[in-house]
Write a structure and sequence with these properties.
With 209 residues, this protein is of the alpha/beta class.
Length: 209
């Protein structure tokens, strides 16, 4: 994949921990509320971004329209001293869709469709869950959004979304993108072809998919 070096600053954050994260359930386009830790993580994002961006003039804040991302974005706005109406939404920042598998734990999926997760594991980039989408399909919409970023932006999205976004920006291979982590306690700064990671101290609980 070709890297997309650019001058425009982009900060990428994942939503805070949710109840589905705690339970190990596949979320996709379904929603579950932020946990107490998730709200604390979102507050940490706001505090960290306030330190990283001393002057917010000219910045956009764009969020996935899914509830957990929007709730995180609202908490970030409060931490930055911004009005909630500053939040824009874009469906291309939604999480990977797991279709009929959403809401299930891996144990429940295995009981319902034996071998399904192993089949996906063998080709995660191209595998399409029933009614869902593959990494490859998702990369098209995320890449289209990334190509349109033309001013300083804070993007609030999801684990896989952020992974793909960072990988496309960095020109990583499919395997390298799949190996990236999905932290809920870090902010990524993308600018001039480089990617920097800034962390705050709250621990996250994640399901790597």
């Amino acid at each position: 994949m070709a890297a997309r070096p650019r001058e425009t600053e982009l900060y990428v954050v994942r939503h805070g921990q949710t109840t589905f994260n705690v339970e190990g359930r596949l979320q996709g386009w379904r929603d579950s509320p932020l946990s107490g830790l998730g709200r604390t993580q979102a507050q940490g994002h706001g505090a960290l971004l306030k330190t990283l961006i001393p002057n917010l003039e000219g910045f956009r804040l764009v969020s996935s329209p899914l509830g957990r991302a929007l709730d995180t974005a609202r908490i970030i706005c409060a931490g930055l001293g911004l009005a909630g109406d500053r939040i824009e939404t874009d469906g291309r920042l939604k999480e990977l869709s797991f279709g009929e598998w959403e809401g299930l734990t891996l144990a429940e999926l295995e009981a319902r469709v034996p071998g399904a997760w192993e089949a996906r594991r063998r080709d995660r980039w191209r595998f399409v869950p029933p009614g869902g989408e593959s990494y490859e399909m998702m990369a098209v919409r995320v890449g289209a959004w990334l190509d349109e970023v033309d001013r300083p932006t804070i993007a609030v999205c999801h684990g896989i979304t952020g992974r793909v976004l960072r990988g496309l920006y960095g020109g990583l291979t499919e395997e390298e993108i799949l190996a990236l982590d999905e932290p809920q306690d870090a902010v990524f700064h993308l600018t001039r072809g480089s990617i920097a990671r800034f962390e705050h101290p709250d621990e996250d609980q994640t399901l790597s998919v």
